[in-house]
TrEMBL record, chain B:
<feature type="transmembrane region" description="Helical">
    <location>
        <begin position="181"/>
        <end position="199"/>
    </location>
</feature>
<keyword id="KW-0813">Transport</keyword>
<comment type="similarity">
    <text>Belongs to the ABC-2 integral membrane protein family.</text>
</comment>
<dbReference type="GO" id="GO:0140359">
    <property type="term" value="F:ABC-type transporter activity"/>
</dbReference>
<feature type="transmembrane region" description="Helical">
    <location>
        <begin position="232"/>
        <end position="250"/>
    </location>
</feature>
<dbReference type="Pfam" id="PF01061">
    <property type="entry name" value="ABC2_membrane"/>
</dbReference>
<feature type="transmembrane region" description="Helical">
    <location>
        <begin position="108"/>
        <end position="133"/>
    </location>
</feature>
<keyword id="KW-0472">Membrane</keyword>
<dbReference type="InterPro" id="IPR013525">
    <property type="entry name" value="ABC2_TM"/>
</dbReference>
<keyword id="KW-0046">Antibiotic resistance</keyword>
<dbReference type="GO" id="GO:0046677">
    <property type="term" value="P:response to antibiotic"/>
</dbReference>
<keyword id="KW-0812">Transmembrane</keyword>
<dbReference type="GO" id="GO:0043190">
    <property type="term" value="C:ATP-binding cassette (ABC) transporter complex"/>
</dbReference>
<feature type="transmembrane region" description="Helical">
    <location>
        <begin position="65"/>
        <end position="87"/>
    </location>
</feature>
<dbReference type="InterPro" id="IPR051784">
    <property type="entry name" value="Nod_factor_ABC_transporter"/>
</dbReference>
<feature type="domain" description="ABC transmembrane type-2">
    <location>
        <begin position="27"/>
        <end position="257"/>
    </location>
</feature>
<dbReference type="InterPro" id="IPR047817">
    <property type="entry name" value="ABC2_TM_bact-type"/>
</dbReference>
Length: 339, 260
């Protein structure tokens, strides 16, 4: 794709909400390793966007480029209305970033960390202190405000990290794998925090390798694999992109099985297990219709199970082999033979 | 606020941060004073009689000769601790946080360097006090003391910028603590402990031409009244050169490195 045309794609400003983040053809290589191979993004203001991908897909690099930590080799991007290359300070004034590793000053106390941020944001002494207190309360670390950050647990460090990011009340926040390494309870807390931020109008750009997280939080999800965006849409749209849900019927009698094969000619068959997979959505009506057809034909099934596609299916289908990275080609791992 | 006021404000914020670290961990600052104090004790009480005799005096004469040398060495050693502080900061996420904020870029390094110079000067006050306590006497006028403080600040500033750059090229805190050893050792190969003239010819050439010798000689002149000659200007030129080099090197390293 051409990456040098169109400095600012500003068409279609009509009914669409303004983009908080937009990128066209972003590229980045380290040596001869291409990390980002031309990615396009458009994130409406006030929404949550999840960049989903396995390790090494280029998620962190994307965040680093958009947050002005690293310069892109090609392409253009705007964050909060500022070009990342032409006006990095404008971008910096509008964003908050939380990386994979807590960005705290371990030698300072929680409160001192927050006041350091306030001072760097030039908030003034009184407002800085006020803001620090407010955030200490909000993130439930007021009781340890005078303790050094080095003594904090992982969950507390993340909370302080988030609080530090929010001192400046950023318009756009970047969360790079915000829940990696957190226990399930801290993860839930983080999710609640993200939701409350969005409720306040903040745009959230988060990266994650957890499908559940993207599904829970994001308005839109892009799947990043090997430096390319391989799919983008809402969780529902992505689920619709892969082979749909099915009902699995298992029989004990070969005769029943064979008659069922005749009744459902399109179904995937498995002669050894005497099972049949009937494609279609798993809604109640569809299920009732299916059972009616079995009844009418006088077939008795031993067992019935319903399978709805989840983002795991999407992920593994789109990124090839998610776990091992060896060539699984286009065979979706979670699917058995389809026809 | 203008760009300059921003730069000063941000640098002051960073300086406060570094001084707070120093106050919270006084062992680092005290450690910077401990080394020269131990050197004074060792060289005066263990070697003082024989070295002093070799130089045609006694222990007291050697104390007078040695003190300026130990102070210069102490400044160099103290300033080099910056590399550890800088490297330790660079391996933590906080630097990336600073980089994604709309703050004056240079303030991070400026805060470190100025903080380290302040720390070094405080520990040098302790060293001078100790030297006076064990019998060092100076005939320096207040103006000469002031000039001595100015010279030491310039040396601290120069070595600290160099040290900051060494901290930036170090991948780990361990290697950051090793790199400055060479600089800390350098005053020994000058006129800090014995006159350069007493060394073997090759070493003597090196001793006479390395930066710490004119610095030591200038301080000695200010505190003990020996001849300074051109050493004052040579010292200041070295300080300016090392400062500028260290600053430019640090700046380009800081702007190009992202760790983690």
């Amino acid at each position: 794709m051409p990456s040098s045309v169109m400095p600012t794609p500003r068409r279609g400003d009509g009914p669409r909400p303004p983009a908080a983040v937009s990128a066209v053809g972003l590229r980045k290589s380290y040596g001869d390793k291409t990390v980002l191979d031309g990615i396009d993004l458009r994130i409406p203001a006030g929404s949550v966007f999840a960049l989903l991908g396995p390790n090494g897909a280029g998620k962190t690099t994307t965040v680093q480029i958009l947050s002005t930590l690293v310069a892109a080799d090609g392409g253009h991007a705007q964050v909060a209305g500022h070009d990342i290359a032409a006006s990095p300070d404008g971008v910096r004034a509008a964003i908050g970033v939380t990386g994979q590793f807590s960005a705290l000053d371990d030698l300072l106390t929680a409160e001192e960390n927050l006041i350091l941020m306030a001072d760097l944001l030039r908030l003034g002494k009184r407002e800085g202190r006020f803001r620090a207190q407010e955030l200490l309360q909000r993130f439930d670390i007021a009781d340890v405000a005078g303790k050094r950050a080095a003594t904090f647990s992982g969950g507390m460090r993340r909370r302080l990290d988030l609080a530090m990011m929010l001192v400046g009340d950023p318009q756009v926040i970047f969360l790079d794998e915000p829940t990696t390494g957190l226990d399930p309870r801290s993860r839930r807390t983080m999710w609640d925090t993200v939701r409350s931020l969005v409720a306040g109008g903040t745009t959230v750009f988060l990266t994650t390798q957890y499908l559940e997280e993207a599904d829970q939080l994001a308005d839109r999800i892009a799947v990043l694999d090997k430096g390319r965006i391989v799919a983008e849409g809402t969780a529902e749209q992505l689920k619709a992109q892969i082979p749909g849900g099915h009902v699995r019927l298992r029989f004990t009698e070969t005769a029943d099985y064979e008659r069922a094969v005749a009744v459902f000619p399109g179904a995937a068959t498995d002669e050894e297990d005497l099972t049949l997979r009937v494609a279609g959505d798993a809604g109640l009506d569809a299920l009732r219709a299916l059972l009616d057809r079995l009844d009418t034909a006088g077939i008795s099934a031993a067992d019935l199970s319903v399978h709805t596609p989840d983002l795991d299916d999407v992920f593994l289908t789109l990124t090839g082999d998610g776990a091992t990275g060896t060539g699984a080609h286009d065979t979706p791992r979670t699917k058995e033979n389809q026809r | 606020m203008s760009t300059l006021t921003y730069a000063v404000h941000d640098s002051m914020t960073m300086l406060r941060r570094n001084l707070r670290h120093a106050m919270r961990y006084p062992s680092v600052s005290l450690g910077a004073a401990m080394m020269p104090i131990l050197m004074l004790l060792l060289f005066v009480y263990a070697f003082g009689d024989s070295i002093g005799a070799g130089m045609g005096g006694g222990r007291d004469a050697y104390l007078e000769y040695l003190t300026p040398g130990v102070i210069v060495m102490g400044v160099a050693a103290g300033a080099m601790s910056t590399s550890i502080a800088v490297c330790s900061d660079m391996t933590q996420g906080i630097v990336n946080r600073f980089r994604t904020m709309n703050i004056t870029r240079s303030s991070f390094m400026t805060g470190h360097v100025v903080g380290s110079v302040v720390q070094t000067m405080v520990s040098m006050v302790l060293v001078v006090a100790f030297a006076l306590a064990i019998g060092f006497r100076s005939d320096a006028t207040p103006l000469e003391w002031l000039a001595a403080a100015g010279l030491l600040t310039a040396i601290a500033f120069a070595v600290t910028w160099l040290s900051a750059a060494l901290g930036l090229i170090s991948k780990t805190v361990e290697s950051a603590s090793n790199k400055p050893l060479l600089v800390q050792f350098l005053p020994f190969l000058g006129s800090a402990f014995v006159p350069a003239g007493s060394m073997s010819p090759g070493l003597r050439w090196f001793a006479e031409n390395q930066p710490f010798t004119p610095m030591t000689e200038t301080l000695r002149g200010l505190l003990s009244g020996s001849a300074i000659g051109d050493n004052g200007w040579i010292s200041l030129a070295w300080c300016a050169g090392i400062s500028l080099g260290g600053y430019l090197w640090s700046r380009s390293l800081f702007n190009s490195t992202t760790k983690r």
